[in-house]
Amino acid sequence: MENLDLQTLNQQIDSIDTKLVQLLNERACISLNIEKVKKEESSDDNENVHAPGREKQTFERIHRLNYGPLSSESLGAIYREIISASISLQKDVSIAYFGPLGSYTHQAAIERFGDGINYFPQPTISDVFDSVEKRRTTYGIVPFENSTYGSVVATLDKFISCKTHILAETYLRINHCLLSKSKFSSLNKVYSHPQGFGQCQKYLDMYLKEVQRVDALSTSKAAEIAASEPYSAAIASITCAELYGLDVLEKDIQDVKNNVTRFFILGSTSDKPSGDDKTFILFTVDHRQPGALCDALSIFKDHNINLTKIDSRPSLQQPWHYVFFIELQGHKEEGEVQKALNEINEFCLDIKILGSYPNQRPESLS
Ligand SMILES: O=C(O)C(=O)C[C@]1(C(=O)O)C=C[C@@H](O)C=C1
């Protein structure tokens, strides 16, 4: 290869950077035009500044175009920040997350929205919903379900009364650590969120059977508490070790190696159909009627709609009365789903459509 002296190579990089800066600003100008069009189309100021369907398309496209030598991860990270900057240009976006700093929800938020956005930690999942509902932040992010331990009940329960919508889903691999300032042999307490304990049951039963388990509001709150109490440990992420000045006593203590949590991004509306969406609804049926739930669900079968999750929680209206949660394939504004959601009304006492969002489950996690 010719011209391999450093000075020439640096000049080549400079010339590419000149073009990149110009192109990035051209892209930014288009983003500002998109903002104008969006404002003309909608009266809701918050509506779809973050357009998850469009972002999914963009990421899929850049990965298809990439022949290297840049890795897919590097290119994805660069584009994450380009889009983050583009969002900030359109609107001063703020995101409430289930915190404090260093929680898995915080990490999922940064992976999803990049560094250019303002993040606001909330002590509880309910506070995240309230923050979006009262428009203190543009969006919120909450954990929804874990592949090992199942649904996050605080999120399901809040869906029953909330007025927010699901805008998007996002996934994060979860690797738990045992963190402490004390020696392993001196531990008498371990703090975590119930999900953290639930995902590490085998490790706890094998190595920390005699150590008292104490629930904390979140895994990062557990790390914060463990940092201030001698002989205490926390089950939390490796990020929390550095943030709260704790030592990593053990890594990867979750029962299942491939441990993943799904999060929901909450906003004031859902996105348009993207071609590969899911819809999440909740409903109640008359329990005194034999086959009431079966009748309601059969509507989806009749319309050839696949269900991807089913769950239930006490309704709190009367004992042994339940709210059912269903996630299904398709968008609420699309043909068969729209018809099914109209028909199911007849079989339900109450029904609430929580939102439609692009399917973002990574293939590696299917
Ligand atoms: O296409 C849009 O709706 C945009 O606002 C542009 C853009 C982008 O910069 O690519 C920015 C934010 C959205 O989340 C998706 C895409």
Automatic annotation (TrEMBL):
Keyword vocabulary terms for this entry: Amino-acid biosynthesis, Aromatic amino acid biosynthesis, Coiled coil, Cytoplasm, Isomerase, Lyase, Multifunctional enzyme, Phenylalanine biosynthesis
A Gene Ontology molecular function term of the record: chorismate mutase activity
EC number: 4.2.1.51
GO biological process, one term: chorismate metabolic process
Catalytically driven reaction(s): chorismate = prephenate; prephenate + H(+) = 3-phenylpyruvate + CO2 + H2O
ACT domain mapped to chain residues: 281-358
Coiled coil regions in record: 6-40
Residue ranges occupied by any Chorismate mutase domain in the UniProt entry: 1-94
Annotated Prephenate dehydratase domain residues: 94-268
Compartments, as annotated in UniProt: Cytoplasm
Domain of life: Eukaryota
InterPro entries per record: ACT-like_dom_sf, ACT_dom, Chor_mutase/pphenate_deHydtase, Chorismate_II_sf, CM_dom_sf, CM_II_prokaryot, Preph_deHydtase
The protein's annotated pathway: Metabolic intermediate biosynthesis; prephenate biosynthesis; prephenate from chorismate: step 1/1; Amino-acid biosynthesis; L-phenylalanine biosynthesis; phenylpyruvate from prephenate: step 1/1
A cellular component annotation (GO) from this entry: cytoplasm
CDD domains: ACT_CM-PDT, PBP2_PDT_1
Main location class: cytoplasm
Record Gene3D superfamilies: 3.30.70.260, Chorismate mutase, Periplasmic binding protein-like II
Task of the protein: Catalyzes the Claisen rearrangement of chorismate to prephenate and the decarboxylation/dehydration of prephenate to phenylpyruvate.
Protein name, as recorded: Bifunctional chorismate mutase/prephenate dehydratase
Organism encoding this protein: Glomus cerebriforme
